[in-house]
Amino acid sequence: MSGAFSLSGRKALVTGANTGIGQAIAVALAAAGAEVTCAGRRDCDETLAKIALAGGRASSQLLDFADPMAARHTFAGAGYTILINNAGIIRRNDSAEFSEADWDDVIDTNLKALFFTSQAFGRELLARGAGGAVVNIASLLSFQGGIRVPSYTAAKHGVAGVTKILANEWAADGINVNAIAPGYIATNNTEALRADPARNRSILDRIPAARWGEPEDIAGTAVFLCSPAARYIHGTVIPVDGGWLAR
Fold first, then answer.
1. At residue 58, what are phi and psi to the nearest 5 degrees?
2. Under DSSP, is residue 66 helix (H, G, I), strand (E, B) or coil?
3. Among the ranges given (86-100, 178-192, 218-232), the one the predictor scored with the smallest mean pLDDT
4. Sign, Cα dihedral of 178, 240, 24, 152
């Protein structure tokens, strides 16, 4: 790929790249010319195989973002100019019954780790005077309340806020910080919803596109936000939701 959408010569780290949205983004970044490190708490062999089959370049790194500081030593001297913060978990229960452990686990992985990973990445770029791009994976629940996922909703509202503050502080240094808010995407995190006939039907009835999204539906937006074509986009949260928020 060449021109405004090319990522040739760029090096990217994608968290949670072993499956789902993270895997699709890693494959798309590699197809756009980036060298990709696929990071996750489990191996990313399947993602690496997909990238290799397409002729891209990739490696993997084990990072468990249950430890919010897991990536603190990852960026120094490593040449990264793209960070995709995708790693996340979800816990479901009525708010009246939600446990402190489930609250802390989700906040640590989905919000605290995202901030401190971005901090480590940003420090390295600022120290060497290099531009770059951060893309955070937010959610429709960055805008809405949801049902039975209080810590996930709080974390994803926080992701939107962190995206904006980092954009405010880093935009003048050539670091673009933006977020994507996926709609209802067919991944492991939404398996329980798709398996519930009533919830599945109610979700589909509201989506103008009349289908669940696929991880690949998110990947193109991520490539765009990392590319020169998006150089004047800072602090945005872009819904990719089949029209859900427009309904």
1. -160, 155
2. coil
3. 178-192
4. positive
Digit-coded pLDDT (tens) for 150-160: 999 999 999 99
* Type of residue found at 4: A
pLDDT tens profile 111-163: 999 999 999 999 999 999 999 999 999 999 999 999 999 999 999 999 999 99
pTM confidence score: 0.96
Contacts of 205 (CB under 8 A, 6+ apart): none
84: left (phi over 0), alpha (psi -120 to 50) or beta: beta
Task: Walk across the sheet containing 82-85 and list its strands.
Answer: 57-62, 35-40, 11-15, 82-85, 132-137, 175-182, 237-240
Q: Which residues contact 87 (CB under 8 A, 6 or more apart)?
A: 15, 16, 22, 39, 40, 41, 63, 65, 109, 110, 113, 114
Looking at residue 2, its pLDDT comes to 56
Q: Is 80 in the active site?
A: no
Of the residues 80, 152, 184, 232, only one is catalytic, namely 152
CA angle 192, 196, 201 (to 5 degrees): 120
The answer to whether residue 1 scores a pLDDT higher than 70 is no
* All domains in the chain, ordered by first residue: 3-238 (3.40.50.720)
Rounded Cα–Cα distance for residues 87 and 20 (Å) = 10
Closest CA to 150 of 90, 209, 206, 198: 90
Instruction: Please calculate the CA angle 171-175-122 and round it to the nearest 5 degrees.
Output: 115
**Angle, helix 45-53 to helix 20-31, in steps of 10 degrees:** 30
